[in-house]
Amino acid sequence: MADPAPPGTRLYRHRLATRLWHWINAIAVFILIGSGLGISNAHPRLYWGRYGANFDHAWATLPHFPAWLTIPANYNLAMSRRWHLFFALVLAFGLLAYMIASLLNRHFQRDLRVRAGDVAMRHLRADVAAHLALRFHDPARPGAYNVLQKLSYVAVIFILLPLIVLTGLTLSPGMDTAWPWLLDLFGGRQSARSLHFITMAAISGFIVIHLTLVILAGAWNEVRSMLSGWWRVPE
Question: Would you give per-residue pLDDT tens digits along the chain (235 residues)?
Fold first, then answer.
């Protein structure tokens, strides 16, 4: 087994496809969340089933989001929808291109493959303890993703992002004839809208945790690696 790289060693950590997708996705998700909150302000009630309107029972009533959180920064439903629909296409096709590239360059198999030993309770406890102690990198495998990173990235890439794309498609009336099975899959347009919002909340939570850990792990080193691909082994 090779000796671990000493602190300060530069490692090529992120390939070009990963870096491009990361920043395109970051912009798209930021605008989608802001414009989505603007759309929510038009009717902040969530329902289950095929139908839902003002006098129907809502399982949740969302707050009115302030203008500084929405895109545009004033109530304009038509403009929020335009921003949302355009960047939904950016998100969907960007995700598709990233998945194809990551299969071809073996990024998924090399970096995100979750092995049986990764999810053993002993390993999970050790990884949680290391995070609580603010130790984010394994000295024996510098630059490699730990099990919590693998599980969170796999959940976002293969579950949350596809789910938000499919539920978003279900909200379009055009899907009634193009892909009618989407309505059956999610139990109706209002159920799809509820799942769309829940998924958005989960992605927003991931972003908050991700940015927090980037700062704690060394913001400049992490951001630089996502710009250039090169990462320095920390002390």
Answer: 455 677 778 888 899 999 999 999 999 999 999 999 999 999 999 999 888 777 788 999 999 999 999 999 999 999 999 999 999 999 999 999 999 999 999 999 988 888 888 788 888 888 888 888 878 777 667 667 888 889 999 999 999 999 999 999 999 888 878 888 899 999 999 999 999 999 999 999 999 999 998 998 889 999 999 999 998 888 7
Residue-wise DSSP of 7-30: TT-EEE---HHHHHHHHHHHHHHH
Select from 199, 212, 226 the least CA-distant residue to 29. 199
